[in-house]
From TrEMBL:
GO terms for molecular function: protein-membrane adaptor activity. The chain crosses the membrane at residues 6-26. Gene3D superfamilies: Galactose-binding domain-like. Keywords: Membrane, Transmembrane, Transmembrane helix. This is SUN domain-containing protein. It comes from Glossina austeni (Savannah tsetse fly).
Amino acid sequence: MQTCLGYWLATALFFFLTYALLSGNLQNSKKLEKLRQDVEEMAHMVLSKFAGKGDPTLLMEMIERSVKKHLPKIWDDLNALKKSLKAGECPSLASGKSVFKIEEPVNYASEELGAKIIAVQAQPVCPPNFLKTLLGMEFTKNPPARMLESKMEPGNCFAFQNDTAVVTIKLPHLVLIDHIGLQHISQKQSPTGDTSNAPKDFTVFAIVEDRDVLLGKFHYGCIQSNLLQTFVVQSAEKYDLLRFHFNSNHGHPHYTCVYRIVVYGKM
C-alpha cells in the first residue's frame, strides 16, 4: 500500500509543480488554480485518512479524475510555453510575473510538436530527374514539410506547379479541431512584390479509417492586413489525420506557394 501511495502522491506532486511553473507565466490559469486545489485536497487525504491504514482506492480514483480533466489544458499550456521559450522570450520565475504574452493558441500542425506530411499529390515546380523521382525527392527544393514550420521567409514554402495539390498531414495527437487556417508572406516580404502565388480556395477532410469527413471549404483572401487567416470548424469528434486539397491560387499562371498551415483545437 505504501508503494501505491508513493506513486500517486508523486503524480500529484508533478501536477503541483506544473502549476507552480505555469501560474506565474500564463494569464489563463483558472483550470490550473482548480488543479492546485485538487492537489491540496488529495495531499490532505493522504495525511489524514490514508497514513498507515485503509484502502487507497478512493484516493487513486480522485487523482485519475483530476488528471483526465486537467491534462489536455496543461499540455496546451506547456506547448505554448515551449514555443515562447524557443522564440527567446524567457519568463521570469523569480518575480512570478510574466515577461511575455502568449496570444496564439497551440498549432497542432507544427513540425516542432511532431506533425508530419505523409502523402503528397502535386507536380514540383522544377521537374525532377529520374533518380530524384525514384528516391521520392521531387520536392527537395520546396518540400511540403515547410508548411509545418513557423518561419515566414520568402521561399520557405511548399511550392508546386499550377494551382492544385493534395497533401495529407498527420497531427501529433487526436485533436478536437475548432479552427483551420493558412498564412502567406506579405507583398513587402516578396522580392517582386507579387503574392498572386498564394493559395485561394481549399478544402479539408479528416480521414477516419475508411471514410472522409468534410471539415470545410475555405477561401484564403491574401489580405495584407490579415495574412494569418483562420476559419471555424464544427468538429464533432477528434482527428489526427487531415487531407488538404488546394484548388486554386490568386492568379499566378505557373505555380502556387503554401507557406504555413495552422490547426487549432483541444486534445
